[in-house]
């Protein structure tokens, strides 16, 4: 007899709470610090988080610990349920490795249980978009092995393109040089980036001006989308809702008016490194 299973993800999936409540999944939270004080997303609003960042508060993030993973898994295992955990990209975080260790720690105690850890190789609402599709496939009747295989094959179709408004946050995270950050600020240069098949951030271009950088994202989408129309697309933003609305209009022009567009904040774990003004677009395409 096939055991029921629980679909897990983590809070870096950056989906709106109202969307998550409609889905059959459990979210494990990552923690972050502002000026040395620990928080979860339940402790502070996104508007307040980005206001603090604009005031130059110090931010720091942490991966999910082995113990947190283990406790969350065991709650389901005790109820006779198996585990499928879709994790934050291993190219950006150690959360995937924490989950693997938690699985090994529980294996002897629950020998009949199946625990499958799948690296999303995605971030923010790209991870969230993959979770949306995974939840749909689970509801359609895929068992745990079928869904894990489906994710491993199709995660490379979840495309990420994004831009940031201020290079100083990428400089702090070691993503750009000091000279690039200073020049970008003086000249109004906005980097355009993507995520590769290994889940790493990859610079793609530099564009002068905010609106031009968003339009460049649209060009990149057209290059990657293939024949995909009328799909679900996701947007995450670092407290720049007007830019997100502009991007939503652009996405509907590209994919069709019937396309579902899910807009959310870029959460603190990603936002701490990309900063206020981050705008990221995620979609199903031919290649990353």
Automatic annotation (TrEMBL):
Function: May bind long-chain fatty acids, such as palmitate, and may play a role in lipid transport or fatty acid metabolism.
Residue ranges the record marks as coiled coil: none
Residues annotated as signal peptide: none
Name under which the protein is recorded: Fatty acid-binding protein DegV
Keyword Cytoplasm: no
PROSITE patterns: DEGV
Alphabetic keyword roster: Lipid-binding
Molecular function in Gene Ontology: lipid binding
InterPro entries: DegV, DegV_C, DegV_domain_contain
Top-level taxon of origin: Bacteria
Lineage start: Bacteria, Bacillati, Bacillota, Clostridia, Eubacteriales
Originating species: Ruminococcus albus SY3
Xref: NCBIfam families: DegV
């Amino acid at each position: 007899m096939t055991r029921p299973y629980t679909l897990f993800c983590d809070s870096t999936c950056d989906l709106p709470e109202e969307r998550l409540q409609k889905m059959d999944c459990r979210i494990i939270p990552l923690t972050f610090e502002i000026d040395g004080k620990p928080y979860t997303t339940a402790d502070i609003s996104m508007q307040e988080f980005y206001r603090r960042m604009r005031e130059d508060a110090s931010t720091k993030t942490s991966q999910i610990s082995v113990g947190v993973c283990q406790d969350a898994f065991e709650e389901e295992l005790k109820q006779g349920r198996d585990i499928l955990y879709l994790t934050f990209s291993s190219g950006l975080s150690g959360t995937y490795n924490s989950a693997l260790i938690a699985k090994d720690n529980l294996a002897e105690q629950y020998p009949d249980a199946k625990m499958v850890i799948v690296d999303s190789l995605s971030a923010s609402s790209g991870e969230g978009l993959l979770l949306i599709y995974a939840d749909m496939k689970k509801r359609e009747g895929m068992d745990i092995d079928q869904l894990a295989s489906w994710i491993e094959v199709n995660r490379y179709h979840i495309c990420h393109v994004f831009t940031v408004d201020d290079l100083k946050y990428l400089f702090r995270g070691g993503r750009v040089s000091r000279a690039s950050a200073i020049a970008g600020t003086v000249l109004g240069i906005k980097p355009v980036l993507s995520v590769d098949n290994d889940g790493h951030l990859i610079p793609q271009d530099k564009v002068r001006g905010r609106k031009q950088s968003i339009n460049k994202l649209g060009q990149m989408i057209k290059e990657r989308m293939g024949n995909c129309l009328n799909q679900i697309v996701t947007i995450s933003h670092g407290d720049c809702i007007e830019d997100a609305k502009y991007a939503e209009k652009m996405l509907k022009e590209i994919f069709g008016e019937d396309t579902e567009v899910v807009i959310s904040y870029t959460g603190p774990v990603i936002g701490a490194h990309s900063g206020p003004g981050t705008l990221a677009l995620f979609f199903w395409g031919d290649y990353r």
